[in-house]
């Protein structure tokens, strides 16, 4: 016994489906670009929160200069993540080759920012290196927390 596929919204396909109980369901679409942008925003906000925690810790232990250096390290990472997300999701829905180029461009832009910002912080501003690097590490926890709490789409 053959079953028509008109009941699943595929009326334009005129072939008959086998009677094995399989009928392809319509694809559930989601707004992947919007989800990605919200994920970037959430990660950047979590990173800023982690940077503030690291700066508070160094402020209590070492003083204002160390707190400023830790916060600067955190801001460097958070701005790098924001630049990465902005460049990654700039093409929107696009072919895989365009998205691959966007990924490489985003990663390159992020690392260019990191090198430039660390050079300015250490060579020009002469901030304390240990709190600066600790702020960089503390802020990475915001990325990991943001990715762990991410909802996976239902299949």
The CA-CA distance between the termini, in Å, is: 29 Å
> Rg from C-alpha positions?
24 Å
Strand content: under 5%
What's the mean pLDDT score?
A: 84
Secondary structure elements and their pairing?
Elements: H1 32-61, H2 64-88, H3 96-124, H4 129-148
Can you give a write-up of this model?
The protein is mainly α and 155 residues long. It has one domain. Helix content is 67%, strand content 0%. α1 (32-61) packs antiparallel against α4 (129-148) and α2 runs antiparallel to α3. The longest helix has 30 residues, at 32-61. The two termini are 29 Å apart. The model has no long low-confidence stretch (mean pLDDT 84).
Q: Which short descriptors sum up this protein?
A:
mainly alpha, 67% helix, flat
Q: Can you give me a brief rundown of this structure?
A:
The protein has 155 residues and is an all-alpha fold.
């Amino acid at each position: 016994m053959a079953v028509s596929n008109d009941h699943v919204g595929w009326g334009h396909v005129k072939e008959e489906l086998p009677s094995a109980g399989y009928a392809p369901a319509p694809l559930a679409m989601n707004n992947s670009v919007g989800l990605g942008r919200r994920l970037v925003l959430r990660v950047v906000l979590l990173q800023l929160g982690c940077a503030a925690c690291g700066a508070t810790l160094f402020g209590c232990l070492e003083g204002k200069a160390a707190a400023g250096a830790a916060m600067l390290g955190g801001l460097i990472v958070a701005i790098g993540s924001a630049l990465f997300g902005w460049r990654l999701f700039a093409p929107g829905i696009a072919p895989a080759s365009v998205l691959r180029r966007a990924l490489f461009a985003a990663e390159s832009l992020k690392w260019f920012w990191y090198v430039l910002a660390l050079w300015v912080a250490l060579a020009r501003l002469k901030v304390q290196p240990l709190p600066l690097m600790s702020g960089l590490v503390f802020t990475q926890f915001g990325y990991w927390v943001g990715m762990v709490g991410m909802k996976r789409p239902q299949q």
